[in-house]
Amino acid sequence: xxxxxxxxxxxPRGVPDKGWSSVNRSERKxxxxxxxxDKVIFNKTKVPVLNAVLDVTQLRQRVLANNVANISTKGxxxxxxxxxxxxxxxxxxxxxxxxxxxERHIPVPKPMGSPEVFxxxxxxxxxxxxxxxxxxxxxxxxxxxxxxNVGARLLAGTFDGLKKSxxxxxx
Amino acid sequence: MQIFDTIDxxxxxxxxxxxxxxxxxxxxxxxxxxxxxxxxxYKRRRTVMLExxxxxxxxxxxxxxxxxxRRTASRHMLEGDPRPDEIFTGSGVLTQEIREEPVKxxxxxxxxxPDAREDGYVVYPDINVVTEMVDMIASSRAYEANATVLSAAxxxxxxxxxx
Lengths: 171, 163
Prior knowledge:
heterodimer, B: two-stranded antiparallel sheet, 3 helices
């Protein structure tokens, strides 16, 4: 699949997505089978959101693992991932939605770029080496792990449902 | 591969703590060593941790140069969002070992000792066993924490195979 961002409904040339019917014959050849699957099947389901959930939790796991690995590094500053806003942008429908039919158009709503890594301002911990709080890291890690499992299970369920609707019987 | 990056980061943490434990074991074992190859009493091994340098990946550099591209024809592709795994490039921890010069060596009056100085005193290394033990506990706890992160990462990879 090619599209991961919140603008998944958009075709590669910025033409508003009205489904497969709006695509003419020459374009059909161009777009290819993968895009077809993306457009008519996967983007209509929870797949793009769950994709983002898995990507973001993987990334957050890396950020947290880096904090734990640097637990005795002097002067290290712990990092966090701002992921809630990013995931919200997939779920929350904007009040106004604009199509971009010209390259000079400004996209409305502003596309949510990507989750952001930041360094929270907290004081030194008990060791005085850095600001990594091991209890907090492990709690965040457990939460993140569960979140990933939820995403993976829902994604598996979505694919099960698609399979069921294609074959007409349960897997 | 990107999905194994978490495991790599935890592995750097594990090996760093293991190296620190090795240094502590060596310090405790050599608490009474008065003679070494380089001469003089044993010098305490101290492990210093430093954050590993950020990865400079090809994909990151490509992404940076892509942000300077302009879309001049309608057939050009739209600029995509950076993939989440291109945002964070931390890569764990590194260690460095330092041999500490003794600040206050332990002096014991023992003129019969083969390493005794001319004034009859023997210079013993500047190692405090209590400090070493405390460091050891901290280090083994940190090792456990890294091992927990690693097993969580392993479980996540396994879980994604069930999709």
